[in-house]
């Protein structure tokens, strides 16, 4: 890459390997690519059927074949006049009916019109959910917190470790707290355990059973389970099985976003996602941002065998984006079986990791610069800060750009010697190989619109890669077995049942015995 950038045609390279779409600017020139590489990668995308599968998704086909479901999170962010259908029936009226209810509810809570059981306004909202019912809205609320205004404080509780809920409740006043139980299935162990404990907290604090209604709302596809839990379906916001959990922040799962930053901002988020959808569905492959990013990922994963990739947002507001991306990519594409049941013929999703810059520079960037394996990095940065403190943002951006430059250029032994260094061992340690790839993605500001476009970009990138690997990006069978095995172990830990001889392997059996002893159930 160093040589390519030293050539007279370097500016042309940047021009050629950069793209703008939906308010995002992508510079992908610092990659190990030539025009021919990109042409061949685009040919691969085409031959793998990316345009065909994309069109099938937009047409509402059951592309989630193993669960026999359509995949239409794109309909959630489409205008009311869009024509998305599932099994021949338009889904738009139902989507917009729920959006209307979300608008009314969020405005009532934010204005103080919706009150707790003693008539006081709601100051705190807890979203109880996990996975897709947590990571997306949590990340968006964090990213847009500068727009919260007088809205309620948002809290997110996901883990079944009671510490999380207990620490959250410690700080809250039951008279002014609203709980959103957010679960697609409304059967998830962690969410139901936390929801039951939250309900008990209200009761213990003197809230009568019939007063709980002012303090609970639900988001789910499962009306019966919501009713059985004791939440009035009038306080339930519906969504549908053709939305995957990790793609659901655009649905009523986003009610916490509307509560935190207002419904208008939530709508702008949808519009940003819609702008990326329009780009993805119409731009030619070579100018299509999700396709280009997706195929660069394939290039490094499959042609260079790079096992991980790093997401480095240079923005504290976007600090939860890597965690969101982990579920999006690894739950979607962490698969080993192709659509036809055969084993995959190439490696699938890399391990995704990362955190906000500049923090990562003082932790793990050493490995990215000089480690023995190469890690492609996606740098993401807003050109202007959501919150102003003089001088800070230029320092932040300077470091972001410098990291990408250092990764690409490296530093040679000759350059070090030219500074007067003579100790060859020292020089060996101070050499940077360079030639390490990165993308840089910029947006003017972090707004609901640009954030919506960014999320949709990575959703579609994930989809593109799944198509190339010929896997189903929309199921998650791999999460099942552990859940099934946890049930009897929980019974054994609580001493409600003992393990039959040989039920567990020796290691697991001994761990259970230790825990039972610690819990006093031996
Ligand atoms: O266990 C994984 C998973 O099924 C995710 O796919 C999902 O986002 C999460 O659990 C939460 O599921 P639910 O919204 O049904 O509670």
UniProtKB/TrEMBL annotation:
EC supergroup of this enzyme: isomerase
UniProt entry keywords in alphabetical sequence: Cytoplasm, Gluconeogenesis, Glycolysis, Isomerase
GO MF annotation, one: glucose-6-phosphate isomerase activity
Primary location group: cytoplasm
Gene Ontology biological-process entries: gluconeogenesis; glucose 6-phosphate metabolic process; glycolytic process
Pfam family, one: PGI
SUPFAM superfamilies named in the record: SIS domain
Gene3D superfamilies: 1.10.1390.10, Glucose-6-phosphate isomerase like protein, domain 1
InterPro entries referenced in this protein's UniProt entry, alphabetically: G6P_Isomerase (IPR001672), G6P_Isomerase_C (IPR023096), Phosphoglucose_isomerase_CS (IPR018189), SIS_dom_sf (IPR046348), SIS_PGI_1 (IPR035476), SIS_PGI_2 (IPR035482)
Compartments reported by the entry: Cytoplasm
Pathway: Carbohydrate degradation; glycolysis; D-glyceraldehyde 3-phosphate and glycerone phosphate from D-glucose: step 2/4; Carbohydrate biosynthesis; gluconeogenesis
Any one GO cellular component localisation term in the record: cytosol
Reaction it catalyzes: alpha-D-glucose 6-phosphate = beta-D-fructose 6-phosphate
UniProt EC number: 5.3.1.9
Active site per the UniProt annotation: 331 (proton donor), 362, 483
UniProt keyword annotation of Isomerase present: yes
Free-text function comment from the UniProt entry: Catalyzes the reversible isomerization of glucose-6-phosphate to fructose-6-phosphate.
Protein family according to the UniProt entry: Belongs to the GPI family.
NCBIfam families: PRK00179.1
Name of this protein: Glucose-6-phosphate isomerase
Species of the source: Cupriavidus basilensis
